[in-house]
Amino acid sequence: MNILVINAGSSSLKYQLFDMQNESVLAKGKVERIGMDSAILSHEPEDKPEVREVSEILDHTNAIRRVLDMLVHKDHGVIQGMSDIHAVGHRVVHGGESFAESVIVTQEVKLEIKKLFDLAPLHNPAHMMGIQAVDTNLPEVPQVVVFDTAFHQTMPAASYLYPIPKLLYNKHKIRRYGFHGTSHMYVSRRAAAVLGQAMEDLKMVTCHIGNGASLCAVNHGKSFDTSMGMTPLEGLMMGTRSGDIDPAIVPYTMAQAELSMSEINSMLNKHSGLLAISGLSSDMREIVDAVREGDKNATLAFNMYEYRLRKYIGAYAAGMNGLDVLVFTAGVGENSAFLRKSVCEQLTVLGVELDTERNESSSREDRIISSDASRVKVLVIPTNEELVIARDTYQLIKQSPAK
Ligand code: ADP
């Protein structure tokens, strides 16, 4: 069975076509600048050269059409025809409290996702455009939606409620939802498999650190707490996002600096974090290079980033009353030995001991980087959210073949 995985954004769309017989990726790529006359389609077929096309792609329906044309193209294609696409799986950022697991797309599911537009105004409408574009182009093909929030639906109320008037939760659904759930679930399961232990026996903290970053306390296989909240702004300091700040800063700054609601929103989401403190970049590679050259602002930015991350790990170890496994994943977590070293060197109190050589290895494989004597096992697990989406889609479609 071949499954097309789609991650639709407002002006971009990423895709991967999986052959589920061996979970291989037949092709992957992305469409950028949807809505413009110079949209870019980059296509990477397995065992064939990469292709890049610039053309007018005005909407998601057209974008999907172009992707499908590319997948069956006589030179760049990887399948014979549309009937070789058996199902489509979509990433959806927000499932609210309605979705604790992946589901097959029906009219009711679409309505439910639309109800969640207010909670994820930048993401869910774009995902819906992706779903509708598949409806138009592949009307017979079943679709599945996989939610970033679903894994965190096991959080207890003590983790997910904010200490604010209950009406705000009851009436407006203001609570902590958490994100990156697909990644936290995948890497926690892989880590247990690498260690040859059952999830049920382990207390883990998984660190998904990319441009956006979140931690998850995975207690006996279930999300017990996570650092992102009602939106992906809460929690860790990130590339351009502030993470946790005193909420009173918002009205105070609006009054003092005469900022509007959208200006303060943009400040906290796009002009804060590493970028604001370093005055240099939101990219951890550039920050680490500057730290090595002795740049003071970059060093402060790095120290704040690392300290806030370490505080959360400590908080989750206390929250679960124990820590057996620490996992690093995503762009920074997988690639920055420098950050991992800085974090782990000051977690000896929890029983973390890094093996310097293992940490420095440039292997792309799942691997243990703690010393054999370390009480807490530390692992690097490259995340693979697309594979989880493909697997969930495969399982659901296998159980229910008719659309
Ligand atoms: P996203 O959150 O957009 O999915 P990724 O998980 O792909 O992001 O992470 C992207 C980030 O990973 C980049 O902004 C960069 O800071 C960081 N990164 C990638 N490679 C390295 C590296 N070798 N060292 C440090 N940081 C890296």
Please render the helix and strand layout as text:
Elements: E1 2-8, E2 13-19, E3 24-32, E4 36-45, E5 51-57, H1 60-71, E6 87-92, E7 103-104, H2 107-115, H3 124-137, E8 143-147, H4 157-160, H5 166-172, H6 181-195, E9 203-209, E10 213-219, E11 222-226, H7 249-256, H8 261-270, H9 273-278, H10 284-292, H11 296-320, E12 325-329, H12 330-335, H13 337-345, H14 356-360, E13 367-368, E14 377-380, H15 385-399
Helix pairs in contact: 1-3, 10-11, 11-13
The protein binds adenosine-5'-diphosphate (ADP).
What does this structure look like?
By secondary structure, the chain is an alpha/beta fold. It folds into two domains: 2-147, Nucleotidyltransferase, domain 5; 181-385, Nucleotidyltransferase, domain 5. It has helices at residues 60-71, 107-115, 124-137, 157-160, 166-172, 181-195, 249-256, 261-270, 273-278, 284-292, 296-320, 330-335, 337-345, 356-360, 385-399; strands at 2-8, 13-19, 24-32, 36-45, 51-57, 87-92, 103-104, 143-147, 203-209, 213-219, 222-226, 325-329, 367-368, 377-380. Strand 1 (2-8) and strand 2 (13-19) form a beta hairpin. The longest helix is centred in the C-terminal third of the chain and has 25 residues, at 296-320. The chain is globular and about 60 Å long. Adenosine-5'-diphosphate is lined by residues 210-212, 239, 283-285, 288, 330-332, 335-336.
